[in-house]
TrEMBL record:
Listed name of the protein: Glucose-6-phosphate isomerase
Family label: Belongs to the GPI family.
Organism in which the protein naturally occurs: Nitrospira defluvii
Chain segments carrying region Disordered: 546-567
InterPro entries on file: G6P_Isomerase, SIS_dom_sf, SIS_PGI_1
Gene Ontology BP, a term: glucose 6-phosphate metabolic process
Lineage of the species this protein comes from: Bacteria, Pseudomonadati, Nitrospirota, Nitrospiria, Nitrospirales
Amino acid sequence: MPTRPTASLLLDNPTISKTLDDLASSHTIERIWTRDHTLWKSSPTEIDNRLGWLTVLDHMQDGLTELRSFAKAAREARITDVVLLGMGGSSLGPEVLRCTFGSAKGFPKLWVLDSTVPGWVRQVTKAIQPARTLFLVASKSGGTIEVMSLFAHFWELVRRTKGNRGGAQFVAITDPGTGLEQLARERGFWRTFTNQPDIGGRYSVLSYFGLVPAALLGLDVGKLLSRALTMRESCRNTSSPKDNPGAALGGMMAAMAMAGRDKVTLLTSPALNSFGLWVEQLLAESTGKEGTGIVPVAGEPLASPTAYGADRLFVALRLKGDRNAALDRSIIALQRAGHPVFRLNLADRYDLGGEFFRWEFATAVAGHALGIHPFDQPNVQESKDNTARVLKDVETQGRFPSLPMLTPKQALTQLLEQAAPNRYLAMLAYTTPSPQLDASIRALRKAVMLRHHIATTAGYGPRYLHSTGQLHKGGPNSGLFLEFVDGMKPDVPVPEKFYSFGTLAQAQAVGDLQSLQTHQRPAVRIALGPNPVRTIRSLIAMLTPAKAGRRKPAAKKRPLPKRRTHR
Ligand SMILES: O=P(O)(O)OC[C@H]1O[C@H](O)[C@H](O)[C@@H](O)[C@@H]1O
Protein backbone atom coordinates (compact mmCIF):
# COMPACT_ATOMS: atom_id res chain seq x y z
CA MET A 1 0.00 0.00 0.00
CA PRO A 2 1.32 3.45 -0.81
CA THR A 3 1.76 5.73 2.16
CA ARG A 4 -0.50 8.74 2.14
CA PRO A 5 -0.25 12.14 3.71
CA THR A 6 -2.75 12.45 6.48
CA ALA A 7 -2.39 16.15 7.02
CA SER A 8 -4.99 17.38 4.58
CA LEU A 9 -5.90 20.13 7.03
CA LEU A 10 -2.43 21.54 6.66
CA LEU A 11 -2.82 21.50 2.89
CA ASP A 12 -5.88 23.73 3.28
CA ASN A 13 -3.75 26.43 4.87
CA PRO A 14 -4.14 29.47 2.51
CA THR A 15 -0.37 29.92 1.90
CA ILE A 16 0.00 26.28 0.93
CA SER A 17 -3.22 26.18 -1.07
CA LYS A 18 -2.06 29.12 -3.13
CA THR A 19 1.23 27.38 -3.99
CA LEU A 20 -0.60 24.14 -4.81
CA ASP A 21 -2.96 26.09 -7.08
CA ASP A 22 0.03 27.69 -8.81
CA LEU A 23 1.55 24.25 -9.33
CA ALA A 24 -1.72 23.12 -10.91
CA SER A 25 -1.99 26.10 -13.22
CA SER A 26 1.63 25.80 -14.35
CA HIS A 27 1.05 22.04 -15.03
CA THR A 28 4.08 21.23 -12.91
CA ILE A 29 3.32 17.53 -12.51
CA GLU A 30 2.72 16.88 -16.20
CA ARG A 31 5.79 18.91 -17.16
CA ILE A 32 8.04 16.91 -14.87
CA TRP A 33 6.92 13.76 -16.60
CA THR A 34 7.45 15.26 -20.08
CA ARG A 35 10.91 16.32 -18.84
CA ASP A 36 10.32 19.97 -19.61
CA HIS A 37 13.49 21.67 -18.33
CA THR A 38 11.90 25.14 -18.59
CA LEU A 39 10.02 24.24 -15.44
CA TRP A 40 13.27 25.03 -13.62
CA LYS A 41 15.60 27.01 -15.87
CA SER A 42 15.62 28.19 -19.47
CA SER A 43 18.81 26.25 -20.23
CA PRO A 44 18.67 22.43 -20.18
CA THR A 45 22.21 22.18 -18.74
CA GLU A 46 22.37 19.63 -15.95
CA ILE A 47 18.59 19.12 -16.16
CA ASP A 48 17.88 17.04 -19.24
CA ASN A 49 20.69 14.68 -18.25
CA ARG A 50 19.53 14.49 -14.62
CA LEU A 51 15.98 13.13 -14.83
CA GLY A 52 16.74 9.42 -15.11
CA TRP A 53 15.44 8.82 -11.57
CA LEU A 54 11.92 9.15 -13.01
CA THR A 55 12.31 5.91 -14.96
CA VAL A 56 15.24 4.03 -13.43
CA LEU A 57 12.85 1.79 -11.49
CA ASP A 58 11.87 0.00 -14.70
CA HIS A 59 15.49 -0.82 -15.51
CA MET A 60 16.07 -1.95 -11.96
CA GLN A 61 13.07 -4.26 -12.14
CA ASP A 62 14.53 -5.80 -15.26
CA GLY A 63 17.79 -6.22 -13.36
CA LEU A 64 16.28 -7.94 -10.30
CA THR A 65 17.43 -11.42 -11.24
CA GLU A 66 20.96 -10.15 -11.77
CA LEU A 67 20.96 -8.41 -8.37
CA ARG A 68 19.66 -11.50 -6.62
CA SER A 69 22.17 -13.79 -8.20
CA PHE A 70 24.98 -11.38 -7.36
CA ALA A 71 23.93 -11.34 -3.69
CA LYS A 72 23.68 -15.12 -3.74
CA ALA A 73 27.17 -15.43 -5.19
CA ALA A 74 28.51 -13.10 -2.48
CA ARG A 75 26.94 -15.33 0.16
CA GLU A 76 28.31 -18.45 -1.43
CA ALA A 77 31.76 -16.86 -1.45
CA ARG A 78 31.39 -16.77 2.36
CA ILE A 79 31.94 -13.03 2.52
CA THR A 80 31.62 -11.81 6.10
CA ASP A 81 31.76 -8.06 5.55
CA VAL A 82 30.99 -5.58 2.80
CA VAL A 83 32.67 -2.17 3.02
CA LEU A 84 31.10 0.52 0.88
CA LEU A 85 33.46 3.33 -0.06
CA GLY A 86 31.46 6.31 -1.29
CA MET A 87 30.37 9.84 -0.49
CA GLY A 88 27.10 11.77 -0.46
CA GLY A 89 24.51 10.32 -2.79
CA SER A 90 26.65 7.22 -3.21
CA SER A 91 26.76 6.41 0.50
CA LEU A 92 23.83 7.89 2.40
CA GLY A 93 21.06 5.82 0.77
CA PRO A 94 22.95 2.59 1.59
CA GLU A 95 23.58 3.93 5.12
CA VAL A 96 19.84 4.43 5.64
CA LEU A 97 19.12 0.91 4.38
CA ARG A 98 21.82 -0.50 6.66
CA CYS A 99 20.51 1.35 9.71
CA THR A 100 16.86 0.61 8.98
CA PHE A 101 17.04 -3.05 8.01
CA GLY A 102 20.43 -4.37 9.13
CA SER A 103 21.72 -7.54 7.46
CA ALA A 104 19.33 -10.42 6.97
CA LYS A 105 20.31 -13.72 8.54
CA GLY A 106 23.21 -15.30 6.68
CA PHE A 107 24.10 -12.11 4.78
CA PRO A 108 27.30 -10.13 5.30
CA LYS A 109 27.62 -7.15 7.58
CA LEU A 110 27.67 -3.81 5.76
CA TRP A 111 30.02 -0.95 6.67
CA VAL A 112 29.50 2.38 5.00
CA LEU A 113 32.73 4.33 5.12
CA ASP A 114 32.36 7.94 4.02
CA SER A 115 35.08 9.61 6.02
CA THR A 116 38.74 10.52 5.76
CA VAL A 117 39.16 10.91 9.52
CA PRO A 118 41.94 8.41 10.39
CA GLY A 119 40.19 7.16 13.52
CA TRP A 120 37.14 6.15 11.49
CA VAL A 121 39.22 4.56 8.72
CA ARG A 122 41.16 2.59 11.34
CA GLN A 123 38.01 1.50 13.11
CA VAL A 124 36.60 -0.15 9.98
CA THR A 125 39.99 -1.53 8.96
CA LYS A 126 40.34 -3.26 12.32
CA ALA A 127 36.81 -4.59 12.43
CA ILE A 128 36.84 -6.59 9.20
CA GLN A 129 38.50 -9.79 8.10
CA PRO A 130 40.34 -8.46 5.02
CA ALA A 131 40.47 -11.77 3.16
CA ARG A 132 36.73 -12.30 3.52
CA THR A 133 35.57 -8.76 2.83
CA LEU A 134 34.04 -7.36 -0.33
CA PHE A 135 34.72 -3.69 -1.12
CA LEU A 136 32.07 -1.74 -3.00
CA VAL A 137 33.67 1.28 -4.61
CA ALA A 138 30.72 3.56 -5.35
CA SER A 139 31.22 6.80 -7.21
CA LYS A 140 29.18 8.30 -10.02
CA SER A 141 32.06 10.49 -11.22
CA GLY A 142 34.59 7.79 -10.43
CA GLY A 143 37.18 10.26 -9.17
CA THR A 144 36.05 11.63 -5.78
CA ILE A 145 39.16 12.15 -3.63
CA GLU A 146 37.80 10.51 -0.47
CA VAL A 147 36.66 7.42 -2.35
CA MET A 148 39.87 7.00 -4.30
CA SER A 149 41.99 7.49 -1.17
CA LEU A 150 39.95 4.87 0.67
CA PHE A 151 40.22 2.53 -2.29
CA ALA A 152 44.03 2.90 -2.27
CA HIS A 153 44.08 2.10 1.46
CA PHE A 154 41.95 -1.05 1.22
CA TRP A 155 43.59 -2.25 -1.97
CA GLU A 156 46.91 -2.17 -0.15
CA LEU A 157 45.39 -3.90 2.88
CA VAL A 158 44.01 -6.71 0.73
CA ARG A 159 47.27 -7.01 -1.20
CA ARG A 160 49.15 -7.57 2.07
CA THR A 161 46.65 -10.12 3.37
CA LYS A 162 47.43 -13.83 3.19
CA GLY A 163 44.88 -15.73 1.16
CA ASN A 164 43.53 -12.62 -0.56
CA ARG A 165 41.67 -12.81 -3.84
CA GLY A 166 42.99 -9.50 -5.18
CA GLY A 167 40.71 -7.61 -7.54
CA ALA A 168 38.01 -10.26 -7.10
CA GLN A 169 37.32 -8.69 -3.69
CA PHE A 170 36.32 -5.39 -5.29
CA VAL A 171 33.15 -4.30 -7.07
CA ALA A 172 32.58 -0.90 -8.70
CA ILE A 173 29.36 1.06 -9.08
CA THR A 174 29.87 3.99 -11.41
CA ASP A 175 28.78 5.75 -14.58
CA PRO A 176 29.92 4.54 -17.99
CA GLY A 177 33.34 5.74 -19.10
CA THR A 178 34.69 6.92 -15.73
CA GLY A 179 38.21 6.50 -14.40
CA LEU A 180 36.79 4.05 -11.87
CA GLU A 181 35.34 1.89 -14.61
CA GLN A 182 38.76 1.74 -16.22
CA LEU A 183 40.48 1.06 -12.91
CA ALA A 184 38.08 -1.80 -12.26
CA ARG A 185 39.01 -3.31 -15.61
CA GLU A 186 42.73 -2.89 -15.07
CA ARG A 187 42.72 -4.31 -11.54
CA GLY A 188 40.41 -7.21 -12.33
CA PHE A 189 37.44 -6.25 -10.10
CA TRP A 190 34.87 -9.00 -9.59
CA ARG A 191 32.42 -6.88 -11.48
CA THR A 192 31.25 -3.38 -12.35
CA PHE A 193 27.67 -2.19 -12.12
CA THR A 194 27.40 0.52 -14.74
CA ASN A 195 24.72 2.94 -13.69
CA GLN A 196 22.47 5.00 -15.91
CA PRO A 197 24.41 8.29 -16.31
CA ASP A 198 21.39 10.61 -16.28
CA ILE A 199 20.89 10.40 -12.50
CA GLY A 200 22.51 12.84 -10.10
CA GLY A 201 24.19 11.34 -7.04
CA ARG A 202 21.55 12.51 -4.59
CA TYR A 203 18.72 10.98 -6.64
CA SER A 204 20.47 7.63 -7.08
CA VAL A 205 19.24 5.49 -4.16
CA LEU A 206 16.79 3.53 -6.30
CA SER A 207 19.47 2.76 -8.90
CA TYR A 208 22.44 0.40 -8.56
CA PHE A 209 23.93 2.81 -5.99
CA GLY A 210 21.27 1.86 -3.44
CA LEU A 211 20.11 -1.49 -4.72
CA VAL A 212 23.43 -3.33 -4.94
CA PRO A 213 24.06 -2.72 -1.20
CA ALA A 214 20.40 -3.53 -0.53
CA ALA A 215 20.78 -6.91 -2.25
CA LEU A 216 23.98 -7.62 -0.31
CA LEU A 217 22.17 -6.87 2.96
CA GLY A 218 19.67 -9.54 1.99
CA LEU A 219 16.73 -7.17 1.55
CA ASP A 220 13.81 -8.16 -0.62
CA VAL A 221 14.79 -5.74 -3.37
CA GLY A 222 11.70 -6.61 -5.40
CA LYS A 223 9.50 -5.50 -2.53
CA LEU A 224 11.43 -2.25 -2.03
CA LEU A 225 11.11 -1.53 -5.74
CA SER A 226 7.43 -2.36 -5.89
CA ARG A 227 6.70 0.16 -3.09
CA ALA A 228 8.71 2.74 -5.01
CA LEU A 229 6.80 1.91 -8.20
CA THR A 230 3.44 2.30 -6.51
CA MET A 231 4.50 5.71 -5.23
CA ARG A 232 5.87 6.65 -8.62
CA GLU A 233 2.56 5.81 -10.27
CA SER A 234 0.70 7.95 -7.72
CA CYS A 235 3.10 10.80 -8.46
CA ARG A 236 2.58 10.32 -12.18
CA ASN A 237 -1.14 9.72 -12.42
CA THR A 238 -2.52 12.14 -9.87
CA SER A 239 -2.74 15.48 -11.59
CA SER A 240 -4.09 17.49 -8.67
CA PRO A 241 -1.07 18.68 -6.63
CA LYS A 242 -3.05 18.43 -3.43
CA ASP A 243 -3.71 14.73 -3.96
CA ASN A 244 -0.38 13.93 -5.53
CA PRO A 245 1.82 12.53 -2.71
CA GLY A 246 5.07 14.03 -3.99
CA ALA A 247 3.69 17.34 -5.24
CA ALA A 248 1.73 17.93 -2.02
CA LEU A 249 4.87 17.48 0.08
CA GLY A 250 7.05 19.55 -2.27
CA GLY A 251 4.50 22.33 -2.66
CA MET A 252 3.96 22.47 1.05
CA MET A 253 7.69 22.63 1.89
CA ALA A 254 8.27 25.38 -0.68
CA ALA A 255 5.22 27.41 0.41
CA MET A 256 6.23 27.20 4.03
CA ALA A 257 9.85 28.08 3.24
CA MET A 258 8.73 31.17 1.33
CA ALA A 259 6.57 32.10 4.30
CA GLY A 260 9.57 31.89 6.67
CA ARG A 261 9.17 28.28 7.83
CA ASP A 262 12.21 27.01 6.00
CA LYS A 263 13.44 24.52 8.64
CA VAL A 264 11.91 21.21 7.61
CA THR A 265 12.23 19.28 10.83
CA LEU A 266 11.95 15.51 10.55
CA LEU A 267 10.41 13.62 13.42
CA THR A 268 10.56 9.87 13.04
CA SER A 269 9.75 6.61 14.68
CA PRO A 270 12.95 5.21 16.21
CA ALA A 271 13.48 2.64 13.45
CA LEU A 272 13.45 5.40 10.82
CA ASN A 273 15.93 7.70 12.56
CA SER A 274 18.56 7.43 9.87
CA PHE A 275 16.19 8.44 7.03
CA GLY A 276 17.07 12.07 7.78
CA LEU A 277 20.63 11.49 6.59
CA TRP A 278 19.33 10.81 3.10
CA VAL A 279 16.70 13.58 3.16
CA GLU A 280 19.36 16.08 4.22
CA GLN A 281 21.55 15.44 1.19
CA LEU A 282 18.56 15.49 -1.16
CA LEU A 283 16.88 18.64 0.11
CA ALA A 284 19.93 20.65 1.07
CA GLU A 285 21.98 20.02 -2.03
CA SER A 286 19.00 20.41 -4.35
CA THR A 287 17.38 23.54 -2.93
CA GLY A 288 20.15 25.36 -1.03
CA LYS A 289 21.34 27.84 -3.61
CA GLU A 290 20.86 31.35 -4.94
CA GLY A 291 20.48 32.56 -1.36
CA THR A 292 17.35 30.51 -0.76
CA GLY A 293 16.47 26.94 0.12
CA ILE A 294 15.00 24.50 2.57
CA VAL A 295 17.05 23.71 5.67
CA PRO A 296 16.55 20.06 6.62
CA VAL A 297 16.77 19.42 10.36
CA ALA A 298 17.25 15.76 11.16
CA GLY A 299 18.14 13.83 14.28
CA GLU A 300 17.35 16.73 16.59
CA PRO A 301 16.27 15.65 20.08
CA LEU A 302 12.56 16.13 20.77
CA ALA A 303 11.80 19.14 22.92
CA SER A 304 8.74 20.89 24.27
CA PRO A 305 6.92 23.14 21.74
CA THR A 306 8.32 26.31 23.30
CA ALA A 307 11.85 25.31 22.29
CA TYR A 308 10.97 25.77 18.62
CA GLY A 309 10.77 29.03 16.72
CA ALA A 310 8.22 30.08 14.12
CA ASP A 311 10.59 28.99 11.34
CA ARG A 312 9.72 25.30 11.55
CA LEU A 313 7.66 22.93 9.48
CA PHE A 314 7.52 19.47 11.02
CA VAL A 315 7.27 16.33 8.92
CA ALA A 316 6.59 13.21 10.97
CA LEU A 317 7.36 9.77 9.54
CA ARG A 318 5.53 7.23 11.64
CA LEU A 319 6.23 3.54 11.28
CA LYS A 320 3.35 1.33 12.28
CA GLY A 321 4.18 -0.93 15.20
CA ASP A 322 7.33 0.92 16.25
CA ARG A 323 7.89 2.45 19.71
CA ASN A 324 5.92 5.57 18.82
CA ALA A 325 4.83 6.88 22.22
CA ALA A 326 7.32 9.79 22.39
CA LEU A 327 6.74 10.68 18.74
CA ASP A 328 2.96 10.67 19.14
CA ARG A 329 3.13 12.82 22.26
CA SER A 330 5.34 15.31 20.45
CA ILE A 331 3.09 15.50 17.41
CA ILE A 332 0.06 16.25 19.59
CA ALA A 333 1.92 18.83 21.68
CA LEU A 334 3.32 20.60 18.62
CA GLN A 335 -0.06 20.70 16.89
CA ARG A 336 -1.73 22.03 20.02
CA ALA A 337 0.87 24.78 20.21
CA GLY A 338 0.02 25.75 16.62
CA HIS A 339 3.11 24.38 14.86
CA PRO A 340 2.48 22.89 11.41
CA VAL A 341 2.97 19.11 11.37
CA PHE A 342 2.64 16.99 8.24
CA ARG A 343 2.28 13.28 8.90
CA LEU A 344 3.42 10.41 6.72
CA ASN A 345 2.49 6.90 7.76
CA LEU A 346 4.57 3.87 6.86
CA ALA A 347 2.97 0.46 7.10
CA ASP A 348 6.33 -1.28 7.32
CA ARG A 349 10.01 -0.57 6.66
CA TYR A 350 9.72 -1.45 2.96
CA ASP A 351 7.55 1.64 2.54
CA LEU A 352 10.89 3.46 2.61
CA GLY A 353 11.08 2.57 -1.10
CA GLY A 354 7.98 4.73 -1.65
CA GLU A 355 9.34 7.49 0.57
CA PHE A 356 12.57 7.68 -1.42
CA PHE A 357 10.57 8.36 -4.56
CA ARG A 358 8.08 10.69 -2.88
CA TRP A 359 10.86 12.92 -1.53
CA GLU A 360 12.70 12.96 -4.85
CA PHE A 361 9.55 14.08 -6.63
CA ALA A 362 8.76 16.57 -3.87
CA THR A 363 12.23 18.07 -4.16
CA ALA A 364 11.87 18.57 -7.91
CA VAL A 365 8.48 20.24 -7.31
CA ALA A 366 9.85 22.42 -4.50
CA GLY A 367 12.73 23.45 -6.76
CA HIS A 368 10.25 24.76 -9.30
CA ALA A 369 8.18 26.58 -6.70
CA LEU A 370 11.30 28.19 -5.21
CA GLY A 371 12.60 29.15 -8.65
CA ILE A 372 15.92 27.34 -8.32
CA HIS A 373 17.79 24.59 -10.20
CA PRO A 374 17.31 21.41 -8.17
CA PHE A 375 19.89 19.31 -10.01
CA ASP A 376 23.12 21.28 -9.82
CA GLN A 377 25.44 21.97 -6.85
CA PRO A 378 27.41 25.12 -7.68
CA ASN A 379 28.99 25.61 -4.25
CA VAL A 380 30.16 22.05 -3.61
CA GLN A 381 33.14 22.56 -5.90
CA GLU A 382 34.38 25.55 -3.90
CA SER A 383 35.20 23.55 -0.80
CA LYS A 384 36.85 20.89 -2.96
CA ASP A 385 39.00 23.59 -4.61
CA ASN A 386 39.89 25.03 -1.22
CA THR A 387 40.84 21.57 0.04
CA ALA A 388 43.08 21.09 -3.00
CA ARG A 389 44.71 24.48 -2.36
CA VAL A 390 45.29 23.72 1.31
CA LEU A 391 46.78 20.33 0.39
CA LYS A 392 49.08 22.04 -2.11
CA ASP A 393 50.24 24.47 0.60
CA VAL A 394 50.91 21.56 2.92
CA GLU A 395 52.93 19.88 0.19
CA THR A 396 54.99 22.95 -0.65
CA GLN A 397 55.27 24.69 2.72
CA GLY A 398 54.83 21.71 5.00
CA ARG A 399 52.12 23.32 7.14
CA PHE A 400 48.47 24.33 7.35
CA PRO A 401 47.42 27.98 7.15
CA SER A 402 47.29 29.52 10.60
CA LEU A 403 43.78 29.95 11.94
CA PRO A 404 42.59 32.01 14.92
CA MET A 405 42.82 29.90 18.04
CA LEU A 406 39.91 30.38 20.41
CA THR A 407 39.11 28.16 23.34
CA PRO A 408 36.00 26.02 22.82
CA LYS A 409 33.98 28.24 25.16
CA GLN A 410 35.16 31.46 23.51
CA ALA A 411 34.34 30.09 20.07
CA LEU A 412 30.84 28.97 21.02
CA THR A 413 30.11 32.21 22.87
CA GLN A 414 31.22 34.26 19.88
CA LEU A 415 29.02 32.22 17.58
CA LEU A 416 25.94 32.15 19.76
CA GLU A 417 26.03 35.90 20.27
CA GLN A 418 24.63 35.91 16.76
CA ALA A 419 21.79 33.50 17.55
CA ALA A 420 18.49 35.08 16.56
CA PRO A 421 15.09 33.94 15.34
CA ASN A 422 15.26 32.15 12.00
CA ARG A 423 18.94 31.23 12.37
CA TYR A 424 20.27 27.71 12.78
CA LEU A 425 23.38 26.27 14.34
CA ALA A 426 25.18 23.64 12.25
CA MET A 427 27.67 21.41 14.05
CA LEU A 428 30.27 19.99 11.70
CA ALA A 429 32.29 17.26 13.35
CA TYR A 430 35.53 16.02 11.81
CA THR A 431 35.97 13.10 14.14
CA THR A 432 35.13 9.44 14.69
CA PRO A 433 31.56 8.70 15.74
CA SER A 434 30.77 6.73 18.84
CA PRO A 435 27.55 6.29 20.81
CA GLN A 436 28.94 8.60 23.54
CA LEU A 437 29.91 11.26 21.06
CA ASP A 438 26.54 11.07 19.30
CA ALA A 439 24.82 11.40 22.66
CA SER A 440 26.91 14.43 23.64
CA ILE A 441 26.25 16.16 20.31
CA ARG A 442 22.52 15.52 20.75
CA ALA A 443 22.68 16.94 24.27
CA LEU A 444 24.50 20.03 23.00
CA ARG A 445 21.81 20.48 20.34
CA LYS A 446 19.13 20.31 22.97
CA ALA A 447 20.93 22.80 25.20
CA VAL A 448 21.14 25.23 22.28
CA MET A 449 17.45 24.73 21.41
CA LEU A 450 16.35 25.32 24.97
CA ARG A 451 18.55 28.34 25.49
CA HIS A 452 18.33 30.08 22.11
CA HIS A 453 15.22 28.59 20.45
CA ILE A 454 17.02 28.08 17.18
CA ALA A 455 17.18 25.00 14.98
CA THR A 456 20.26 22.80 15.15
CA THR A 457 21.80 20.42 12.66
CA ALA A 458 24.76 18.08 13.00
CA GLY A 459 26.87 16.26 10.48
CA TYR A 460 30.15 14.41 10.37
CA GLY A 461 32.88 15.81 8.14
CA PRO A 462 33.73 15.30 5.38
CA ARG A 463 30.39 13.52 4.90
CA TYR A 464 28.33 16.68 5.23
CA LEU A 465 30.36 18.39 2.48
CA HIS A 466 28.54 16.11 0.04
CA SER A 467 25.18 16.66 1.68
CA THR A 468 24.34 19.89 3.49
CA GLY A 469 27.56 21.64 2.39
CA GLN A 470 25.88 23.18 -0.64
CA LEU A 471 23.12 24.75 1.46
CA HIS A 472 25.57 26.08 4.05
CA LYS A 473 27.29 28.21 1.45
CA GLY A 474 24.67 28.73 -1.25
CA GLY A 475 21.44 28.75 0.77
CA PRO A 476 19.94 31.43 2.99
CA ASN A 477 22.53 33.24 5.10
CA SER A 478 21.04 32.05 8.36
CA GLY A 479 23.50 29.41 9.49
CA LEU A 480 26.00 29.62 12.34
CA PHE A 481 28.74 27.08 11.82
CA LEU A 482 30.60 25.27 14.54
CA GLU A 483 33.41 23.06 13.30
CA PHE A 484 34.75 20.41 15.64
CA VAL A 485 38.10 19.00 14.59
CA ASP A 486 39.90 16.15 16.30
CA GLY A 487 43.65 15.69 16.48
CA MET A 488 43.67 13.06 13.70
CA LYS A 489 46.10 10.92 15.70
CA PRO A 490 47.32 8.27 15.17
CA ASP A 491 47.29 9.03 11.46
CA VAL A 492 46.84 6.62 8.56
CA PRO A 493 48.86 7.03 5.34
CA VAL A 494 47.20 7.15 1.93
CA PRO A 495 49.26 4.81 -0.27
CA GLU A 496 51.25 6.56 -2.98
CA LYS A 497 50.12 10.06 -1.94
CA PHE A 498 52.07 12.80 -0.22
CA TYR A 499 49.12 13.35 2.14
CA SER A 500 47.77 11.10 4.87
CA PHE A 501 44.09 10.67 5.78
CA GLY A 502 44.66 13.05 8.70
CA THR A 503 46.11 15.72 6.43
CA LEU A 504 43.27 15.29 3.97
CA ALA A 505 40.60 15.54 6.69
CA GLN A 506 42.29 18.65 8.17
CA ALA A 507 42.52 20.20 4.72
CA GLN A 508 38.82 19.54 4.17
CA ALA A 509 37.94 21.16 7.49
CA VAL A 510 40.10 24.19 6.79
CA GLY A 511 38.94 24.43 3.17
CA ASP A 512 35.28 24.44 4.15
CA LEU A 513 35.82 26.95 6.95
CA GLN A 514 37.42 29.26 4.41
CA SER A 515 34.52 28.76 1.97
CA LEU A 516 32.00 29.59 4.68
CA GLN A 517 33.90 32.69 5.68
CA THR A 518 34.19 33.82 2.05
CA HIS A 519 30.40 33.69 1.92
CA GLN A 520 30.20 35.82 5.07
CA ARG A 521 28.78 32.94 7.09
CA PRO A 522 29.71 33.04 10.78
CA ALA A 523 31.97 30.04 11.29
CA VAL A 524 34.31 29.03 14.08
CA ARG A 525 36.51 26.04 14.70
CA ILE A 526 37.01 24.14 17.90
CA ALA A 527 39.84 21.69 18.56
CA LEU A 528 38.22 18.67 20.18
CA GLY A 529 41.38 17.79 22.09
CA PRO A 530 42.23 14.34 23.44
CA ASN A 531 38.75 13.79 24.89
CA PRO A 532 36.09 14.99 22.42
CA VAL A 533 33.16 13.95 24.61
CA ARG A 534 34.50 15.92 27.55
CA THR A 535 35.06 19.00 25.37
CA ILE A 536 31.47 18.90 24.14
CA ARG A 537 30.15 18.31 27.64
CA SER A 538 31.97 21.45 28.80
CA LEU A 539 30.05 23.40 26.16
CA ILE A 540 26.77 21.91 27.33
CA ALA A 541 27.59 22.94 30.90
CA MET A 542 28.26 26.45 29.69
CA LEU A 543 24.77 26.66 28.17
CA THR A 544 22.92 24.95 30.95
CA PRO A 545 22.08 27.13 33.95
CA ALA A 546 23.59 25.74 37.13
CA LYS A 547 20.96 24.16 39.34
CA ALA A 548 19.94 26.46 42.21
CA GLY A 549 21.10 25.22 45.61
CA ARG A 550 19.47 21.90 46.26
CA ARG A 551 16.79 21.73 48.87
CA LYS A 552 17.42 19.73 51.99
CA PRO A 553 15.58 16.43 51.95
CA ALA A 554 12.16 16.80 53.54
CA ALA A 555 11.91 15.40 57.02
CA LYS A 556 8.48 13.92 56.47
CA LYS A 557 7.88 11.20 53.95
CA ARG A 558 5.90 12.68 51.05
CA PRO A 559 3.81 10.76 48.54
CA LEU A 560 5.80 9.88 45.42
CA PRO A 561 5.49 12.52 42.66
CA LYS A 562 3.75 11.49 39.45
CA ARG A 563 6.12 10.00 36.92
CA ARG A 564 7.45 12.68 34.61
CA THR A 565 7.65 12.02 30.96
CA HIS A 566 11.05 12.73 29.52
CA ARG A 567 11.39 13.67 25.92
O1 LIG B 1 29.35 9.66 -6.55
P1 LIG B 1 30.43 10.67 -6.64
O2 LIG B 1 30.66 11.11 -8.04
O3 LIG B 1 31.69 10.18 -5.99
O4 LIG B 1 29.98 11.93 -5.88
C1 LIG B 1 29.70 11.99 -4.51
C2 LIG B 1 29.02 13.28 -4.20
O5 LIG B 1 29.86 14.33 -4.70
C3 LIG B 1 29.38 15.65 -4.63
O6 LIG B 1 29.40 16.12 -3.34
C4 LIG B 1 27.98 15.79 -5.16
O7 LIG B 1 27.55 17.08 -4.92
C5 LIG B 1 27.07 14.75 -4.54
O8 LIG B 1 25.76 14.87 -5.05
C6 LIG B 1 27.65 13.38 -4.82
O9 LIG B 1 26.79 12.39 -4.33
